Amino acid sequence: MKTNAISCKDVTLKDGFWKTRQDINKNVTVDAVYNRFYETGRIGSFACNWRTGDAEDQKPHYFWDSDVAKWIEGVSYILMHEKLPEAEKNIEWLIDGIEKNMTSDGYYNVYFNIFGLSKRFTDRNCHELYCAGHHFEAACAYYNATGKDRYLRLMERFADLIYKVFVEEKSAYFVTPGHPEIELALITLYRTTGNKKYLDLCSFFVEQRGNNEKDIPLFNDPKYAYDVGPMRKAAYAEGHSVRMNYLMSGVCDLAYETGDEELFEACRRVLKNATHKRMYITGGQGSTYIGERYTSDYHLPNKTAYAETCASISLGMLAHRMSLYETNSEYDDIVERTLYNNTLSGVSLEGDSFFYENPLEIRNEDYETEYYDFFWQPHYIPRTRRKVFSCSCCPPNIVRLMASVGGYIYSLGEDTLFIHQYIASECKKDGVSAEISTSFPQNGKITVKAAGVAKVAVRVPYYCKELTANLPYEIKDGYAYFDADKTVELDLNLYARFVYSNTRVYDNVGRAAVMYGPLVYCAETADNATVENFFADASADISVGGDFHGAPTVEISGETQISGEELYSEEPPVRTPATLKMIPYFGFANRGEGEMLTYIPLK
Amino acid sequence: MKTNAISCKDVTLKDGFWKTRQDINKNVTVDAVYNRFYETGRIGSFACNWRTGDAEDQKPHYFWDSDVAKWIEGVSYILMHEKLPEAEKNIEWLIDGIEKNMTSDGYYNVYFNIFGLSKRFTDRNCHELYCAGHHFEAACAYYNATGKDRYLRLMERFADLIYKVFVEEKSAYFVTPGHPEIELALITLYRTTGNKKYLDLCSFFVEQRGNNEKDIPLFNDPKYAYDVGPMRKAAYAEGHSVRMNYLMSGVCDLAYETGDEELFEACRRVLKNATHKRMYITGGQGSTYIGERYTSDYHLPNKTAYAETCASISLGMLAHRMSLYETNSEYDDIVERTLYNNTLSGVSLEGDSFFYENPLEIRNEDYETEYYDFFWQPHYIPRTRRKVFSCSCCPPNIVRLMASVGGYIYSLGEDTLFIHQYIASECKKDGVSAEISTSFPQNGKITVKAAGVAKVAVRVPYYCKELTANLPYEIKDGYAYFDADKTVELDLNLYARFVYSNTRVYDNVGRAAVMYGPLVYCAETADNATVENFFADASADISVGGDFHGAPTVEISGETQISGEELYSEEPPVRTPATLKMIPYFGFANRGEGEMLTYIPLK
To answer: How far apart are CA A95 and CA A152, in angstroms?
Structure first.
């Protein structure tokens, strides 16, 4: 069943796990990202006045528009609920730059405006349409937040130009973007303006992808940018993970608007492959930094996991969109898995530094070996979060995700309010109002009050073995349907558990992960003398308790081992009983450069 | 106690494990390497007539002299025992090239002869002294084999020039070689010619290393080429593994000739670090391809092990040299570990193809992932041996190791013949004669006859728990001393066993290797349905039997596991009893591109 989205504009978070993070986002992350973008020249670049001879480290890159636009989009979601005068002033300055430097025919891109407009639309790998898409998203968000339409009007002109160049003139050197994202942005632009041209342009890019002779695959690899054939036949999660998830999000939005079941079936196939064969337990996507991409089924190495923050965010975007097309709690389970693990780990607990990559294991020896200072650098992620990266897509993506998380909670069917995520909040839309009270994920107790609808359908997650409720309910498509006339009080009865990987995931043979509700846990040397030489007793109870930034910690029982001095010996290492303290994965690497392990060897 | 080497010239192998390999070396490998060197232009390059515009793939590289010289050296060891007319003719042609192109002051190097003699001795990283050293070794071997001294005389001129440039004039741009090897070669040249100048030149290079201001560390890293300070203070196995082991071999030879205990003590320290903290169970050296080098203590990853064939060979060279300086069975144990595992795995069973790297684990998924065809190549070794590499040091190193293995068996003390290795052979030197009969490593039965000495001292290896002998003996320094008047018949009582790594070797936590005598075993998918999902029962007997190219195979008991279809599940995988067949590690990857595992998870 198709349901109507309830945007983050219509949802206010209440005190709880996510409100705490939204506050950190607003109070720390917004400025942290802006300041770093300012220092690195990204902000200033909107004046389009960098010239040869100026500071090389401020030289604009062709993806800088997208970084800044994502920040504007994120701030706009905050502006839907409260004032941020300084940030709004900065956004206006940025829009000034766009307005001043947009060409008479409606083109704007920092890089090409500076380095040669004659080269525009000639290189499929130059992220122009990706940057345009992020501007469209930002412009719509800013308009929806403030009612000010200057940015939106500029972006309509840009979108019109793209329509003309790609659909009417066919004068670009390529047919579809090397880095998708504009597809989903065009749907947002269509929804915001009502102009069907943007829906058509989205449809054009989707139908032409992998289906024309002019698009030369990037890096000689049709899979890299998902040029694998007509999108209607798409079946596998392949290539660059973020590109694929943005692309499929656009495809899903298009299917939603047009009711095109064949297109949606492609989304189903791709999401199934992505999440049933190629997803880290944390929701991470992409097993290798080489191409930041999907590899093959069950190939999920822990130490070298790429699992980019943006890939996790974009998988959540796709799954949430799919949950609006058809009611199926599995989609929400995926969103939740990404939110509480691989996405949240992308930002420090303080909110001022970021991970691009989110591995499932860190061994100091890989960093502290003598060769690390050598001119050949091996590829391991930084062990602590960085303030900014040269490729800085993830930090502003965190800003906008945190600010818009309210949009993932509710949706509205004909007479039913759907609760997708257990986030303390209130919503009001079209005569419907609702309120969720919960300490989730500390425990599974959730209270829902709703008015203006007949039914409330609350997701029953895959990890709920016993649903306790104060009212009768019916289960359908993974949702518990309650009459909305009374307050619903339910308990998901969360419990800690060992989770085993498919035996084709070779890194995890003889090991298990620990979860509590949607939370994946990890062990760090900050809490334990050894994390590599602990063997868990999977038959013993897991102790749950304490509070780690809104979630419990756990302790598992087992044995540690230690060998003699010899490098090799016929004597097995000596084992002694021990316990291992584990924290939620999202909080790893916030206490220095320690070792971290997600999959624990079993006794 | 210092003993006298007995060269491979004085030793003839008898039918057995190593004779089989020597025959393959002579009948297959010698020509295989020559033919590939011919095809790649290495042989032709000795005419020094490559010019710009000629085939780019035949353009000489600055290490080509060393490749070819090593092949000459290997063939020369064969010529000590039998005729190879075609190979000898080819060597003469190569010497013609050297003679014709050597400069009037005695310089020869294919690369610099072609690309500019004015640049000679200006770049420490251009392997000139390394190439010279290999020529010295080859010239001495060829002279000792044939009595023909043309090559030797040319190389004496070259060595004299180097002495003049480096010691007298100090006109080179550097003081010591970036790639050591000349040190040990100068000792060979000294021993062959009796000219003390070469001993002095060796001493100069050793004493100056890490001890002068002119040598700039390569790649800004003093450890890379072992520029870590005075050699007398050397303490760690660091930097490029092959360079270090060649260097320490030269240092050991120098100490042997001069009785310099302080220098030898440095060898002891370095070897101890190399073998007690940084050695794969296979004798492999160097944990990373990044710099082909040592990393840190206990950092011994299996899949990405570099463990270059040349590094294993050169560790054996060092340990054997040390065994001549002082009687200690541990040195021979190290030699044996390298010979039967990481060195032998460097060549295919047929003798015509080679591994540069020798990992301890191969997972097909790392190769078969979709990104493998991508323009960014991840670094995994080829899964099957190659005919030749662009950097082709290992194949000719195999040729000379196989041909000279007889030199690792015996040495002579004052009244005692030492048996270092259990290799079926006869030796005759200075009135002493001996014969070893054995099927080792199929079993531990060894018969030794000796004449012309009072005692025979047979090494008792670290894995011998019970030595059975037909005669009384005394144990000293890890050797069993017998009176030499009767035939000694002994049995090392080999057995198969699980071997545990130090618990700081994180890749091997919860796993064990399997050994029989000096042989490390591995499991391949060629013999087993799964190698990754088998759990060994370390308390069960290991079954030993069969014959795999002169060594037994083993079978271990335990369980396999298989999960359901789910990627993640609360249900542990189902285990069923099973056995795992294992072959000697040296034979891995001779049956197609399968998976291979050395460390087996434990039940």
So the answer is: 10
| Interchain pair B224, A374: CB under 8 A | yes
Query: Bridge-partner residues for A578, per DSSP?
Result: A558
Picking from A300, A567, A571, A598 by the largest number of B CB atoms within 10 A of its own CB, the best residue to mutate is A567
Instruction: List the single best residue of B285, B302, B371 to mutate versus A (max A Cβ within 10 A).
Output: B371
Alpha helices by DSSP H, A449-509: none
Number of neighbouring beta carbons within 10 Å of residue B591: 14
CB-based contacts of B382: which residues, under 8 Å, 6+ apart? B355
CA triple A455-A456-A460, angle to 5 deg: 135
- Beta-carbon separation of B562 and A363 below 8 A: no
CATH number of B411-491: 2.60.420
Q: Are B100 and B116 in contact (CB under 8 A)?
A: no
pLDDT tens for each residue of B418-429: 999 999 999 999
Looking up tokens 């007298």, which residue turns up?
B168
Q: Is B532 on the interface with A (CB under 8 A)?
A: yes
CB atoms within 10 A of CB A199: 19
How far is residue A2's CA from residue A323's CA, in Å, rounded to a whole number?
Answer: 8
Radius of gyration of chain B (CA): 24
What distance in Å separates the CA atoms of residue B444 and residue B436, rounded to the nearest whole number? 12
Q: Are strands B410-412 and B416-419 parallel, antiparallel or unpaired?
A: antiparallel
Annotated domain spans of chain B: 411-491, 500-601
Q: Tokens at residue B129, please?
A: 């002294």
**Are B298 and A567 in contact (CB < 8 Å)?**
yes
Residue A534, both tokens: 């602990």
Q: How far is A561 from chain B (nearest CA, A)?
A: 7
H or E element, residue B119? none
pTM, entire model:
0.94
**Complete DSSP assignment for B272-288:** HHHHHTSB-TTS-B-SB
What does residue A3 show for φ and ψ, rounded to 5 degrees? -125, 165
Torsion region of A452: left, alpha or beta (phi above 0 gives left; psi -120 to 50 gives alpha):
left
- Strands A410-412 and A4-5, bridge-based pairing: antiparallel
Q: Is the ipTM of this complex over 0.85?
A: yes
Q: Which two tokens stand for residue B3?
A: 């003993």
Cα torsion angle, A264, A265, A268, A271, sign:
negative
For the residues of B11-69, what is the DSSP string, one character each?
EEE-SSHHHHHHHHIIIIIHHHHHHHHHHTTTTGGGG----BTB-GGG---TTHHHHHH
* Residues contacting A182, CB < 8 A, separation 6+: A129, A130, A132, A133, A136, A162, A202, A205, A250
**Could you report the per-residue pLDDT of A244-270, keeping only the tens digit for each?**
999 999 999 999 999 999 999 999 999
Contact indicator for B365, B493 with CB cutoff of 8 Å = no
3-state secondary structure of A410: strand
Count of helices and strands (H, E) across chain B: 15, 23
**pLDDT (mean) for A533-557:** 97
